[in-house]
Amino acid sequence: MNTILKCIDGINKFVKILLAISLISMTIIMILQVFSRFILNLPLNWSEEATRYLGIYAVFFGAALAVRYNELISVEAVPDLLPEKGRKYLKIIVLLICIVFFAIVLVQGFSLVSNVSMQKSPALQISMSIPYFSIPLGALLLIINAIAAIIVLVKGGDKK
């Protein structure tokens, strides 16, 4: 189980880098847009679309990392009423239900990517399969990190 966690954490290091690149790129593009529009009086017609697509990828990357480290917002009213062992089992059941949902999103996401592959985005003129690929990629990362969270719970590493 430790090797599985190490592999997932290795993937997450790469995901953290991609998340940082996405956020930095979004910031730079927005600053360029403001500078170009208000100083040069030449708006960039592609900037809003690029930041939107980068933001979608950033959300999926961040959500996957949040699942891994148990940082998602949640209502703890029911788990707080349970003893420690019951709380652990409830978290595992919730994560298993999440994995089923993420698997459905993964399958439907690939279907969606194939459906939009011939379309081009209005401003960037890239295939719409590139922004839509964030859905199955994000679902896969969420599944992997939910599995890691279950492993940590089974090993007894989560005391929240």
Taken in chain order, the helices and strands follow as: HHHHHH
Mean pLDDT: 94
How many domains? 1
> In DSSP terms, counting alpha (H) and pi (I) runs of 4 or more, how many helices?
6
Beta-strand percent range: under 5%
Structural class: mainly alpha
Which radius of gyration do the C-alpha atoms yield? 19 Å
Net shape: elongated
For the secondary structure, the number of strands is 0
Structural overview:
- This protein is mostly helical.
- The protein has one domain (2-155).
- Helix content is 76%, strand content 0%.
- The protein has 6 helices and no strands.
- It has helices spanning 2-38, 47-68, 77-81, 84-115, 129-132, 134-155.
- It is elongated.
- It comes from Lysinibacillus telephonicus.
- InterPro entries: DctQ (IPR055348), TRAP_DctQ (IPR007387).
- Residues 26-155 form the Tripartite ATP-independent periplasmic transporters DctQ component domain.
- Belongs to the TRAP transporter small permease family.
